[in-house]
Design brief:
Order of helices and strands: HEEEEEEEEEE
Strand content: 25-35%
Helix content: 10-25%
Structural class: alpha+beta
CATH architecture of the largest domain: 7 Propeller
CATH class of the largest domain: Mainly Beta
Number of helices: 1
CATH topology of the largest domain: Methylamine Dehydrogenase, Chain H
Distance between the termini: 63 Å
Number of strands: 10
Largest sheet: 4 strands, antiparallel
Radius of gyration: 24 Å
Length: 155
């Protein structure tokens, strides 16, 4: 009985290895799937990605620990915090969301931002504690619009 069970296990192991080799061979011959790594060497402000979303125009928006990036498949447009009133409120991006009208919202460790495409400018949503207006805390962890485009904010 012991000999019989070991032969059965050997046959199963052999069959599984052939199956895995077949899957690996299938993946290796897929000429349509290509992956390329994008790093700081290609233009990202940081290699630590916190969030990735795509807009209706095909741009890929990438949040990092050191800034927001718009990627068009060829080049990067970096959006960083600065002294400019149109800059984003912080470089550490925690979340990105789009409402149904494709309004871009960006959450950071220091506030919520609404992006105005026509001006290429970020509007900082005010932090007003205990007043019922604005956001309750500057550290915004997550954002999500509901079906009525009400933006839910987790602080």
């Amino acid at each position: 009985m012991k000999f019989f069970m070991s032969n059965i296990l050997l046959i199963i192991a052999f069959a599984m290895s052939k199956l895995q080799l077949g899957v690996a061979a299938e993946i290796n011959t897929d000429y349509y799937t290509r992956f390329r790594s994008l790093t700081v060497d290609e233009g990202l402000p940081d290699n630590h990605i916190t969030v990735i979303k795509q807009d209706d125009r095909g741009f890929i928006w990438i949040g990092t620990r050191n800034g927001l990036v718009r990627y068009d498949g060829i080049s990067f447009q970096n959006y960083l915090h600065g002294d400019d009133s149109c800059s984003i409120s912080d470089n550490y991006i925690t979340d990105i969301a789009f409402t149904s009208d494709q309004q871009l919202w960006v959450a950071t460790r220091n506030g919520l931002n609404k992006y105005h495409r026509d001006k290429q400018c970020f509007e900082k949503i005010p932090f007003i504690a205990n007043t019922g207006q604005g956001i309750s805390h500057p550290y915004v962890r997550a954002i999500m619009p509901d079906k009525d485009d009400v933006l839910w904010v987790e602080t």
